[in-house]
């Protein structure tokens, strides 16, 4: 029981539950103000004016507190310093004006002076409380401080004075006013006796205030009863209220308050729409309330859910064509409210809605647009009155339209929760699939491990065996991938520890919870990827043994490598996806250092992906499965695509790219993708070895002679310091990393340049490197032009 009460109190003082508190108070005051305004013809003008003015002032106090709470919730102000003084002052000032209205309905100079002095006193106390509380730095919670005691004692004193005044004067409706003040006294007294020491706001005061404010509409009823004429036949006829004058416009009953509390506490995205329609229907006294979405692409309107106030049960969703409700669909798509009446010939929209729900008539309609997505109209709340035949007026429309933004936030939060739930289910299914694959690979690894112990890997790699040497390069690529994954793991651990240091568990918000969950999923994917790499090493070892013994054909070898490639790509794509999600800050705001770590993770992941791509390319070269598709290719287009792909890489290092191009660029008979890969690989190699703020040069030249076929020369120069003479023979070898250290002056992994050489030679061209020790390298590529091409057959640069 104690836990339930504590949860209810925390719901009233912490966002977003405190939104219900502010809404209920605003609804209660607005309903009383509306009743007083509509009762104006039936009561004395002076008394009505005093009631309207007093309720307007109380409503202004509540709106001020609501706006301040909302801004503090959004982080625009320090809630710990701003809200506690304001939360004590606004109820005190509201209580003063409510006692003034209830105890002195008729004009009274002394009562007017008294409420004025109390207002000034409350504002002075508020200013003093603010200045003192800010000067103290807000080290302690506001509850239990001497300032808190002062405000509560002031409220108790004011309520007791009002209680004595009601008892002595006994104005009309004084019994309900007495109950109002008793609830206020109980709230303050309970807070003083059982204050929550670790909070800034009082849950007890808010709970009893929530029970007291729905009594305010009786103010207008009391004044109407005071001025009602005698029950003569003529007066009886004259006093029959019209639909817009006598009928209650808004509901402040306990079940209405409970409906809004249920909406604030609803966490299931599928039930938020039902909770919203129930709360609106009970507040506005609408027979039916529906949540609808328009879809212009399919020309349909989806009625997602609704609530039947008469039967007090949800209504199942349905759909209908936009052409059946043209006015309603047009208003919602343009973000405009709409009122339709059945007086005279009913509009097509009402006829269609009545037919869909099996009603004889739809009654009067009120539609309020909401944003299901930020900045996008098309959804809305539709209220119908087929049974009560209530006529909606401008005040109803304005009131609901003022709440449109709050309704939009509720629906957008529900959509976000639904999307996160879907992503979670999808990730869980993917993890389960990866777990099953891992178990199968572990079973296979146990079998392969026994074979590896019988035939050690070192005995399978023979210096005289060309294929074994090539697969040793694959092993080195796998080892490098393993090192990259371990580095990613370490960076993720460091990022997790940083988040825990900067945001202790008790202060972590919901957004950070999402970020932690995404980080956990990323780490799990990396663990799966690491296991996959380990098993891939075993499978490569078995593959080498089978090659040496002749048990596998080249096609089977390529198929095995392609299978390993796919197994590595799947978890790596998940890592990249989760990293992009975190960098997009859709699940939480990142600090500068956190973003730096995530960018390093993304860079390392891209590096690992390039290594895996090199693994597949090397397999294609060894198996002879790489096929070229020669066609007429414009060199200008290939250069543009290659420069676009490498510009980001060069920009990150602030490297300047100098272009030396002829006025006209020729066309080639080549494979477009292969030629682009050659240019990208050479530019990336030059950028990798060139220092920051360095320069990379690209020169294109057309050479033609009478005795030889015309060719195009591509020269890519860097500032990497050059290559030593003894390392030059191994530049285009794809095995230099297996047995030797890295070549100084080369930024390639050892496979990319080998692939470049193979692609160039497949096009009938040549490639070589000129080096200047201490300065840099120049990679030169010669490619033949089209056989029938002359210098006149060129494309302008």
UniProtKB/TrEMBL annotation:
Signal peptide: none annotated. The keyword DNA repair does not apply. This is histidine kinase. The chain crosses the membrane at residues 20-40, 52-73, 85-103, 115-134, 149-168, 175-195. The keyword Transport does not apply. GO terms for cellular component: plasma membrane. It holds the Pfam family HATPase_c. It comes from Longilinea arvoryzae. Its EC number is 2.7.13.3. One of its GO terms (molecular function) is phosphorelay sensor kinase activity. Residues 563-787 form the Histidine kinase domain. It is an enzyme of class 2 (transferase). It catalyses: ATP + protein L-histidine = ADP + protein N-phospho-L-histidine. CDD domains: HisKA. Keywords: Coiled coil, Kinase, Membrane, Phosphoprotein, Transferase, Transmembrane, Transmembrane helix, Two-component regulatory system. Residues 417-553 form a coiled coil.
